[in-house]
Design a protein that fits this description.
3-stranded antiparallel beta sheet; two-stranded antiparallel sheet; mainly alpha
Length: 196
């Protein structure tokens, strides 16, 4: 008796899944066509969408605390770790096993030392003088400033995931970054780990 009920339940689930699959395919193809049109028609808008979707603001935009909690500081949009923000002391033993972030999430300390989110605005202190090829190289190869022979990009920058984006998406991101307001902000150099 239990077997019959289980078989009937499995059959009903299969029918419901089959009925809904056509609806899901239509939704997916509609979404893809919107993405393609957005990419072809306006790469800057596509880049803005991608920057918002893949979390660039999480580290590269300073935060401010308001009555609503932590919010993005739109006056310093994508300008990286503020040059005038000093980091507090931390427990070095803890940093060997954990990643420590500052309150604005623009600096991270771990076994690699301390890294600071870069200035992605088109100011000379950011990516103002970068070429598109340099940007692609930075993301594809994980190279600081996209320069051959430079140090690798440091954690928590997820370039190993972002390098899988198609060229059109990376070029759109670069086009968007070049279109935003330039913010003068010299981000501190990374701090290597202390040798014990």
């Amino acid at each position: 008796m239990k077997t019959n009920h289980l078989l009937m339940a499995a059959f009903c689930c299969a029918i419901l899944t089959a009925c809904n699959s056509k609806e899901k395919k239509e939704t997916t193809s509609e979404y893809k066509s919107v993405d393609t049109e957005m990419t072809i028609e306006d790469p800057v808008k596509r880049g803005e969408h991608l920057v918002n979707a893949i979390g660039c603001h999480d580290c590269h935009t300073p935060k401010k605390f308001t009555e609503n909690g932590m919010e993005l500081d739109f006056d310093r949009l994508l300008s990286g770790h503020p040059s005038d923000e000093l980091l507090p002391e931390y427990d070095e033993n803890t940093a060997k096993s954990y990643i420590l972030f500052n309150m604005g999430l623009t600096a991270a300390t771990g076994p690699w030392g301390t890294s600071f989110a870069g200035n992605l605005t088109p100011d000379d202190t950011g990516i103002g003088s970068w070429t598109e090829d340099q940007f692609l190289r930075a993301i594809r190869k994980g190279l600081f400033k996209g320069l051959e022979g430079s140090r690798p990009l440091l954690p928590p920058m997820p370039w190993l995931s972002y390098k899988n984006l198609p060229d059109e998406d990376l070029k759109a991101i670069f086009a968007y970054l070049k279109s935003i307001n330039p913010v003068e902000n010299v981000v501190p150099a990374n701090i290597p780990p202390k040798m014990t």
